[in-house]
């Protein structure tokens, strides 16, 4: 694919074609007997390049289509999809969705979102920044990152550098007459390095993810960061079993908040498979803590004017002075719970954990002696009970300073106690994902090693 092809911005025309197709399909589904219908259509395209030890490992150009139709015959629902947008495939998709709906059991919670909740304002959130990079330029960028990392003494090998440029065009339309268009770009750089030899070998990485390529950290800085992280792990040891404070760095603190999101989400709640069932309005975190959803952040990784059902998004507190202010609901889960949609069909939109005033060094001093966690492994999180137990690696801290790296340990507690025991949130905020947070210091967890 040439740079000229990559740079030709036909996004508005492509969105118009998707929207016209969506509206036509909805009309045809209604003509086939559906009482309501909705369409989600998307076009993803991109370039992915992987370089290792200066040599090209993979080059991939992607251009993927998705087209999904959901029809309702009263409260009977049918869904079908296709990646082929030729007329015969689209017609077959309509017929399949209608056939499925005719033979399913009625579901009292099924149906489109409330028409009064459809978005009417579509601000420019600055999400569209196509990256006009060709294959040769991407390969060279990967080599520059890798060369920067491998130049550090002690780095002995590389797991490779990756360069990704991507764009997504999407349309959601329904028989309320709503048609929502979105276009966004997301680009990424990453590098994974190896230090040491034999049993003492260590691996680590760094990455950057942005909407606009001009926002990337430099290749040199990314290579330096990946090397520094990898070299810092040399000489790792285990720990004896103990209880101590635990500090999660921002990219892992995001996961802690992600478990809260999962537990507060409608599917887990109406199945009564969450430790937060019946907790709306109750304190689950310290009184000073606030977490707010902010869908309209410019260049935000989760920004959007409407959710996956066309419902308008809005700034809204999830945790307010430590209290769980609401759940995270789309229309279906809201009906199952006898509540209203929170505009979260399809997920959250920029969940911002209010930071404190401490930087990372100040958090270490506040912790004094304890564990910094920089990596977790395994799936040991039970949303029903809140039990948390995962393999981990990081650094042992003594008197507010990092003493040595640690590995082959397990950290364990219950999420209820962990959330209630949050001591501080750092101002070292990571904005590379939909959950935006600094480091999180937990008062006490069990650390098990040798």
Automatic annotation (TrEMBL):
Domain Metalloprotease TldD/E central as annotated: residue spans: 129-234
GO molecular function, one term: metallopeptidase activity
Gene3D superfamilies linked: PmbA/TldD superfamily
UniProt cross-references to SUPFAM superfamilies, sorted A to Z: Putative modulator of DNA gyrase, PmbA/TldD (SSF111283)
Keyword terms, alphabetized: Hydrolase, Metalloprotease, Protease
Broad class of enzyme this protein falls into: hydrolase
The protein's Enzyme Commission number: 3.4.24.-
Metalloprotease TldD/E N-terminal domain span: 37-101
Protein family: Belongs to the peptidase U62 family.
The protein's name: Metalloprotease PmbA
Encoding gene (name): pmbA
């Amino acid at each position: 694919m040439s740079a000229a092809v990559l740079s030709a911005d036909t996004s508005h025309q492509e969105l118009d074609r998707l929207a016209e197709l969506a509206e036509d399909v909805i009309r045809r589904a209604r003509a086939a007997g559906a009482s309501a219908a909705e369409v989600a259509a998307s076009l993803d395209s991109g370039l992915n390049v992987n370089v290792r030890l200066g040599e090209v490992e993979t080059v991939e150009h992607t251009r993927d289509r998705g087209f999904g139709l959901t029809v309702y015959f009263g409260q009977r629902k049918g869904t079908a999809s296709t990646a082929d947008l030729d007329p015969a495939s689209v017609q077959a998709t309509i017929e399949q969705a209608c056939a499925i709906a005719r033979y399913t059991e009625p579901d009292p919670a099924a149906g489109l979102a409330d028409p009064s909740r459809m978005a009417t304002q579509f601000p420019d959130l600055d999400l569209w920044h196509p990256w006009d990079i060709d294959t040769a330029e991407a390969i060279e960028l990967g080599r520059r990152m890798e060369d920067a990392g491998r130049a550090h003494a002690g780095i002995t090998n590389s797991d490779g550098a990756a360069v990704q440029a991507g764009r997504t065009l999407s349309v959601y339309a329904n028989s309320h007459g709503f048609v929502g268009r979105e276009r966004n770009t997301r680009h990424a750089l990453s590098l994974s390095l190896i230090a040491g030899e034999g049993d003492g070998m260590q691996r680590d990485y760094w990455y950057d993810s942005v909407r606009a390529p001009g926002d990337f950290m430099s290749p040199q800085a990314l290579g330096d960061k990946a090397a520094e992280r990898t070299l810092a792990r040399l000489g790792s040891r285990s720990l004896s079993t103990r209880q101590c404070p635990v500090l999660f760095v921002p990219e892992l603190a995001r996961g802690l908040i992600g478990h809260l999101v999962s537990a507060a989400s409608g599917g887990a709640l109406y199945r009564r498979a969450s430790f937060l069932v019946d907790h709306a309005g109750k304190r689950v975190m310290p009184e000073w803590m606030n977490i707010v959803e902010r869908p309209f952040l410019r260049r935000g990784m989760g920004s959007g004017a409407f959710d996956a059902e066309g419902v308008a998004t809005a700034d809204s507190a999830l945790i307010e002075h430590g209290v769980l202010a609401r759940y995270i609901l789309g229309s279906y889960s809201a009906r199952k719970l006898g509540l209203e949609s929170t505009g979260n069909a399809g997920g959250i939109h920029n969940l911002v954990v209010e930071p404190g005033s401490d930087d990372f060094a100040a958090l270490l001093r506040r912790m004094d002696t304890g564990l910094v966690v920089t990596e977790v492994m395994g799936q040991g999180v039970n949303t029903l009970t809140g039990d948390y137990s995962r393999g981990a690696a990081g650094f042992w801290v003594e008197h507010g300073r990092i003493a040595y790296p640690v590995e082959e340990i397990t950290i364990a507690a219950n999420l209820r106690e962990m959330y209630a025991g949050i001591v501080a949130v750092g101002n070292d905020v990571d904005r590379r994902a939909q959950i935006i947070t600094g480091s999180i210091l937990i008062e006490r967890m069990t650390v098990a090693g040798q």
